[in-house]
Write a sequence for this structure.
């Protein structure tokens, strides 16, 4: 961590709305250590009155959770609320001139129809913000003051496929993508559901929402197509397994024409050449390799003469899949080194 | 498994009241395989209408849970209800001439005061049944038709200390016993508490109810003394760890006069010589050694010239600590081989 | 368990060669409880001299492991040896008129070339035995005295796809199958590798041998095609996760023509209608549902108008994936109820 | 993290000898982020030639491991070697005027006899360094240039008992201490032992070295007494459980005269009042509360009229129990804020 003298001076005041969940706690941890910000308020309705150090003693943060009542004293607001709860708040904060990073799914989809279909919630056509995936949309993020932070599964899948589809130099034609992604259980939030209890989930794996997960349209949109009119066949099987953190995605891609592992590896290397948080790896990646980091590791694992490609990606769902990517977006919007507070 | 011809014929009809919890599910699994019984009804209020195979597909049992409405068609009733709920039911079933095994704490304590102090529930002085720990009370169990099945922690602790206190030939004087017991999380039942979620309990250990756990008076009573007027100093620290099943108890015993590991090992061997489910082991025991068995393994791990003794015991909390011991009690009451259906 | 009087009489003597590994231990556990056999010898070179109760105290088996020296006193031999070590032994036992079930990969593949390519070991063209997957090859198993027991991944994948390919009434055309299978770590055997230590594998997932796993040709052969000249595109990504037992397979199938979930479910139901150990389930399956059972659970999770199908299967790798299926094969060859000792 | 301008300038060059084990990897991670040091060399014999990023991709460190050949270019050396291997190296580094922090047990014990008894290794009487437990020996650490970093179990036990014994104002008399401590499996190092494999340790607990663990004399020495002539009865039962990191210690203390929880809590509060890394907590502590932190949490859980006291402590074995405390010691010796790089 090489800090210039000026970077040592904290400048921006930051608050978190929805600070008591797992993503909120990770944001708290990261922001407390970030040299350019001062963590101001932790808003959390259900835990209001409790001290953060009581709920998360490992955080070493003695702030008290408060209910949010429209305050706008901070420069920057992170929202880590359940889906639907950010829809009203974000426009207010944006109007007040605040820098806003929303971790919910409320502002990710451009298509109102797809949002309503996958989230079962109404929203207006203008409820869209810049999609905060730096590797694909850094220029747009840089220009604005508000981003919608990507979903965890979406991050692990989009980064694993994007070079095939968005590399304009090469003539790769993708016919089908099948994704099988295993998430740590923290992805379900700080929950009291019986089916997420230790006794149920230890030594277990469970798929859910196969083909209907709300990250499906987000993935398609980020890749330049749409769930309702897809440019290629797409199937997504989300699963949870016996781990707290991490997402491990196996992406089966069907190309038209033969696939070549080395060629694809080079193409990925080039595509991500300047990216501080994407690592295209020679050897197999594992969840442990990215545990508590902001990295997305990618390994091209297999190719065949018939055009099959197996790509494996790993992220920490609470970091690159949530709080880490959110800080990365903040850094971009503040114009400081993108890795600040994240290495 | 050597079955005589007559043992091959199923004879007794059995029902479980409170069949949908973890102990109830283990009872279901064991009774389905038991050659002398026919599993009749699975009563469970909260899951009424659901099929057992839906809630526990590994059971391969296609019975439907029903609410219990006072039926008395079966010969034998197991009750695996939350504490307090058996207080009314047991006397009715006993009056109807049924064989009853109650897995709750409702009928374990002879002292009304201690019951009320530790369970925070009223009960009448006659709400006591034979304490179903075969190794100590086999004769009484044999004579009766109703037993109160021991608690899981209590089983792992009482069996680990009993020979020191109840062996009448030797003149051992116990001055103090400190117990530190780690339980699998299934001991808390099929739960939806946030603090028992996978995300909270993976890679975690947590002590609770130190010095006030309700198994304390039960342990003292079984050992021939009482919590209110103890014959020796007693401290009990229950804990839960990152495992589903099992109880591992470390018993620090302070004797008057020097302790000798080999001597104590022999004394334990002799005390449990005819017991099919207690194994006094030469080498260290582990939870894995008794996983999904009805054994209680005991190892005398350490002794000192100043009278300190470390005894380690391991059981499966859902078997020897609940359903397994309950079946063992049933076998005794039916006059059949005590190990039937348990090996 | 309804045993007829004659079934209560043990008749066959059985020995295990390679008894000290995890599959060998499961065989030991199951055979000790099996009413038609008497477990005679436990052969294990590396653990020779040790008692089974010392290595696996939960087994409650006081037999000593011995080195195998060509004895042929038993009626039935199970071989649970590392790949390559059964190649010499099996022909000797078959010549001696013994019933043989081999759990290694040595005799599974008909193609010598494919065996040598995937196992990196030479073998002779006649080193092939009946492939012991009862659901597909029961008639052949029934006629013979020797079977090669299927691989664990292969079982979970073949059973999940077979009805699509082998159902002769319907005109389904499979274009591609992508399999992503997560196995419990016990699949790697009783191992001392650093990368399989608790510290490395807790909270981890790792893919390996993508596209080159030795179960690939076995799967293709069982499905009536071959790895070298496949009738459809096939990709297999094996993984290990943070669990001891279980295999969870997500099978992405590409049909020609639209896929229909309900239709496929009915087709599977019909295909497996008389199978005691395959359950086609309406709701999502989980590893926990088949834990310590011999079931293979199958759920048709998703279908699309473009012909994509997601099929999820779950087995216990040590039972239906090894020891359980081996006992099932023995039961068939003995002409007794196929489920004996397995429910 | 408030860094003054001068603290932003890195000044000291640091190397790690024995960098490829778990403690070495944690040291690497922490030193890379420490504002006052520059990580120079990673020495590791067995992994020499490998890149740190290959062995620990989560570290994001592209240094190569080298064999150590007596280099003395760095200002500060951390040694994280197996016991015995530091005995020769430390004196050479000290002679060369280097600041040295040794994480092995080689230099902890003043008594040659106790060292040889518990470590089964010879050593000379002068092979002793300042015991690097800041809470008890800060003045000595401050004065010197070399410390022997405490053992993980010892840290969790000594900090939990010290106030009772070392508080000079109060007249508490300790008669006996029984410790039951569960460690994460990383405490055994980066190991390839079968008994530490995931398949063996998942859902397991195992005690070991009861009464003979090498941290026993270290604990007694730190508390001002000795294992060979103890001022109070002491028993220590170390265990490993199904978790990677953390130590949870239950300390049963027998006082002469009645024990009072509130009084003791106040006494601990006062004793640790200025300590940045010891937290005396009102409510129960858990391993999760200190996970990946340098804290030692202490909770006085129970007291009795007969003088029994139950004290529960939690640390992260790789941080406060190893690498974290080592950095804390370095900070003290460098005269910088003790918490630098640790919050």
């Amino acid at each position: 961590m090489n800090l210039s003298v000026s970077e040592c001076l904290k400048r921006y005041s930051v608050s978190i709305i929805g600070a008591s969940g797992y993503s909120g706690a990770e944001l708290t941890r990261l922001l407390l250590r970030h040299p350019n910000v001062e963590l101001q308020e932790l808003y959390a309705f259900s835990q209001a009155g409790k001290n953060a150090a009581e709920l998360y003693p490992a955080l070493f943060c003695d702030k008290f959770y408060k209910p949010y009542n429209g305050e706008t004293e901070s420069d920057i607001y992170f929202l880590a609320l359940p889906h639907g709860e950010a829809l009203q708040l974000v426009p207010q904060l944006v109007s007040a001139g605040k820098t806003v990073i929303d971790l919910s799914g409320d502002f990710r989809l451009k298509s109102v129809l797809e949002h309503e279909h996958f989230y079962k919630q109404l929203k207006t056509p203008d409820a869209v913000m810049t999609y905060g995936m730096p590797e694909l949309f850094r220029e747009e993020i840089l220009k604005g003051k508000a981003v919608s932070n990507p979903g965890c599964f979406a991050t692990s899948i989009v980064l694993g496929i994007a070079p095939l589809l968005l590399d304009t130099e090469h003539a790769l034609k993708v016919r089908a993508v099948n994704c099988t992604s295993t998430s740590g259980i923290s992805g379900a939030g700080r929950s009291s559901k019986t089916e997420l209890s230790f006794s149920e989930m230890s030594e277990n794996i469970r798929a859910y929402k196969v083909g209907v997960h709300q990250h499906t349209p987000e993935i398609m949109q980020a890749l330049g197509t749409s769930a309702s009119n897809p440019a290629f066949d797409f199937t997504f099987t989300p699963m949870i397994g016996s781990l707290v953190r991490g997402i491990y995605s196996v992406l089966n891609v069907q190309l038209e024409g033969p696939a070549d592992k080395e060629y694809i590896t080079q193409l990925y290397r080039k595509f991500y050449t300047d990216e501080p948080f994407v690592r295209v790896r020679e050897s197999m990646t594992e969840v442990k390799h990215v545990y508590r980091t902001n990295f997305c590791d990618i390994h091209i694992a297999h190719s065949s003469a018939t055009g099959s490609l197996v790509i494996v990606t790993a992220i920490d769902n609470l970091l690159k899949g949530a709080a880490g990517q959110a800080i990365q977006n903040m850094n971009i919007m503040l114009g400081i080194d993108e890795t600040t507070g994240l290495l």
